[in-house]
Amino acid sequence: MRLTIVRHGESLGNVQRVLQGQQDYPLTERGKQQADKVARRLVKEPFDVILSSDLTRAYDTALAIAKYHRLPVIKMKELREFQWGILEGLTQGEVVEQYPDLVDEDWGNSGLHGVEGREAIRQRARLVINLLLDEYLHDRVCLVSHGGFINALIMELLNIEWDGAVPFAFHNTSVSQVQFYTEERFRILYLNDTSHLGPMDNM
């Protein structure tokens, strides 16, 4: 399986600098332009299937890619972003102001209402990996998701333990690729490639 992983374009929540989680923020105009750029970059990449988070910012990015491949976009709730619960819609400053006990804590393991938890998203990432290997081992797959979940996916592949911080950066419409040779053998070809974007798009 050749797995091409794309993060969604810039969303309104990105601009507002809030914890988006599973709230459904749309793409900005710049996000739509980024989606078109990544779609054009992937024109010659042969895909057998396109999978996407069902949240608008990811799904609309996937639709931009799909129009060049004459493929439907399959929505998967399992590809949604990390769920931040009652913290969703807040900026980092507002979180610290409203929940001062979290200043030196891992927000993802805070136990606050609705927060998914690090182990839960890791299990969700493993579920997705197993599904991909079961159903698409011999296919070329495009997967469109979110920065937090893509981190979880790569960390689970590499068996990296959560320690409260994510080790990878995935910019808007970044492209990453993983080549699976068997269910046990894979190679990460590259991560967070934004060469299709201009300098202003990477800000």
Question: Explain this structure to me?
Answer:
The mean pLDDT is 94. The chain is 33% helix and 16% strand. The two termini are 32 Å apart. It has helices at residues 12-16, 29-41, 56-66, 92-98, 118-136, 147-157, and strands at residues 2-7, 49-52, 73-75, 140-145, 175-180, 186-193. The protein has a 6-stranded mixed β-sheet with strand order 3-2-4-1-5-6. With 203 residues, the chain is of the alpha/beta class. The longest helix has 19 residues, at 118-136. Helix 2 packs parallel to helix 3 and helix 5 crosses helix 6 (147-157).
How do the strands and helices of this protein lay out in sequence?
Layout: E1 2-7, H1 12-16, H2 29-41, E2 49-52, H3 56-66, E3 73-75, H4 92-98, H5 118-136, E4 140-145, H6 147-157, E5 175-180, E6 186-193
Parallel strand pairs: 1-4, 2-3, 2-4
Antiparallel strand pairs: 1-5, 5-6
Helix pairs in contact: 2-3, 5-6
- Rounded mean pLDDT is 94
Structural class: alpha/beta
Spatially, the strands of the biggest sheet line up as 3-2-4-1-5-6
Q: β content, as a range?
A: 15-25%
Beta-strand segment tally: 6
Low-confidence parts? none
Number of helices: 6
- How many angstroms separate the termini? 32 Å
Query: Helical proportion?
Result: 25-40%
SSE topology string? EHHEHEHHEHEE
Shape: globular
Cα-atom Rg, whole angstroms? 17 Å
Q: What composes the largest sheet?
A: 6 strands, mixed
